[in-house]
Design a protein that fits this description.
Layout (H helix, E strand, L loop, with lengths): L6 H7 L5 E4 L16 E7 L6 E3 L9 E6 L1 H4 L5 E6 L3 H16 L1
Antiparallel strand pairs: 1-2, 2-3, 4-5
Length: about 100
């Protein structure tokens, strides 16, 4: 589904939620034991394709991130953020460009 079609949902959310990935247990039922879970990494879920975008300590290693959509593109006069992976970035930007310049023509 295109980002433009979900724009109202994304504006209400304002900022994507950061998810946490934990290590798997050693075959023991987690709800029955009191063992602490080890946090592996934090990630966002891409709003376009649904893949995981890991949050790395060095920004050069990131495979995507948050993209700020300004008021001029939102049509609701609100700034909001979307999570986009690097392979979807060009498609999402093209979507917003087509939407913006398609109206003025």
């Amino acid at each position: 589904m295109k980002i433009i079609n979900r724009i109202n949902e994304l504006i209400l959310r304002e900022k994507p939620e950061k998810q946490v990935k934990y290590s798997e247990g050693s075959g023991i039922a987690k709800h029955l034991t009191n063992t602490p879970r080890k946090k592996l990494y934090e990630y966002y879920i891409c709003d376009n394709c649904g893949c995981e975008i890991k949050v790395e300590k060095k920004w050069e290693n990131n495979r995507g991130g948050l993209l700020m959509i300004p008021r001029t593109l939102s049509k609701k006069n609100k700034i909001f953020y979307i999570a986009v992976c690097s392979k979807c970035l060009n498609n999402v930007l093209k979507e917003f460009e087509d939407e913006k310049y398609g109206e003025n023509v």
